[in-house]
Amino acid sequence: MKTRLRKDRARLLRGVLSVLERHLGRRRRRRPPDLLETLLHSVLADAGNDLLAASILEQLKQELVDWNELRVTTPRSLELLIHQLPDAAEKALAVKRILQKLFTERHALDLDHFQRFGQARVLQELDAFGGLSVAVKARMLLKAFDSNVLPLTAEIERVAKRVGLVDSYLTTDKVSEVLDEILPCKRIYSFYHLVAEHAETVCVLRGYACAPCVLVGLCARGKVVMEKGDSK
Prior knowledge:
This protein is mainly α. Helices cover about 60% and strands about 0% of the residues. It is globular, with a radius of gyration of 19 Å.
């Protein structure tokens, strides 16, 4: 990316973060999270839906005695418990696979042993569960291991393209490269959480309204929409 363009987009990114932090609050890492819960949330969220996945996970925690009850639940029953999520059937199988593998190999439903691993080993262990997406593994590294890795979900990519942080025609790999150039490592955690929440609650896939959006003054798509006199 040319220096001038990189500086312009880095400035835009800082503006986006500033506005979202003002309206939603800055996101900071707090106490170390429960590793298994973080992984289960990551699987349920996958390409997006962080808030919905968190709500469903909390509901499961309240309704079930422990994770072993979830382990022995049939895939179909688990699918019904998480039916609000996209690809619920596949996610139900992934959750079952993780819990069963832990039970069979470690006789314990936790990931405490991950705490002594470095990033490379963590990724190897996650790969051993089978079928986990790049976004799921990146979310684990970011949330549970303080790694400055951006989980590039479909929602993050959508907002980045609409706002103008990246060109709309870029592939996911290229989007990742551009964001790596303009997003400071120390802001990745806040950027991810703020943009994910904005994508899920305001800048949704379909039926979004630009007029009430707090980013409309910065957003490339929003400016075009408002100039045309249409809120959609």
